[in-house]
Here is the input.
Amino acid sequence: MDKKKSLNDEKKVNKISWYADFSELTENKNINIPNVIIFGGVIVDDLSKYQLWSAISKIKSKYNETANFPLKWCFKDLENYYKKNKQIRLYKKLLEDITSWREQIFEQLASLPFRFIISIIKSHAQYRESLKESKEKVIRFAFVMTLQKYGLCVRNNNMSAAEVILDWPPGGNKQIFDIEYRSAFYSGKSAEYGQQYDCGPLKKIGFNDSVLFSSMTECSMLQISDLIIGAFRDLLKEAFGNKTNLHGVKLLRTIKNRLYGAPNNLNYGISISPDKKTFSDIIWIKIKEVLGSRL
Here is the structure.
């Protein structure tokens, strides 16, 4: 009997995936509504995806043998999920042990083959109502900035296929991501801002023709992205002078070599806007202290 060819027999496919989400942060105590967006997530190939899933599942299995439950940085946000699924005892145990399982996960991440990229974008709006109105634009711009970083990562590493998986957006408003991705794919520029992608059109470097969506509660890679973004929120809180000695900063130090471009080219993996001394400089000082030495 003739051996059947696999899908990859004709050509070896080197595919990577970017699992991304965003979080919000208030820059200072005088603002009572978030004005900073942190957008980013992990970049993995198919093998490292399985390795990360196995690592996080092993840690989860210490609490429940099925390991079929979500984790995230702001774990209290999941209380209703656990109530709905009749797992409130598990929820309470995980909440009690939050420091332990966070540390276990980041310890595992430190030795696994993946990268992450982040964009930190501050709204130009200053008042509560205008901040609400500008939020979607800031998220959109953060997505564009981070997608550009990912495009350069794909091109510079000569990958033959790439995909983008986003957490399902609040309210189901995925249109802004679809529009921006379509423009980046076909034209190599932002639909809203006209900004050219240095990597060129995504269609020319192996990207899928559409962005994909999943759910953080069901996707381990999105859960890992959420944990890293959450740790970055702690870094920003320290940079802004709001807090000190936060847990997330300690954990980021353990995975500092997983940032794309670290330790010598931190700007390969991080975008910050606006580029003003009162905002970006204090963040870069903290980032260089925690993650590396040079831009």
Q: What stands out?
A: The two ends are 57 Å apart (CA to CA).
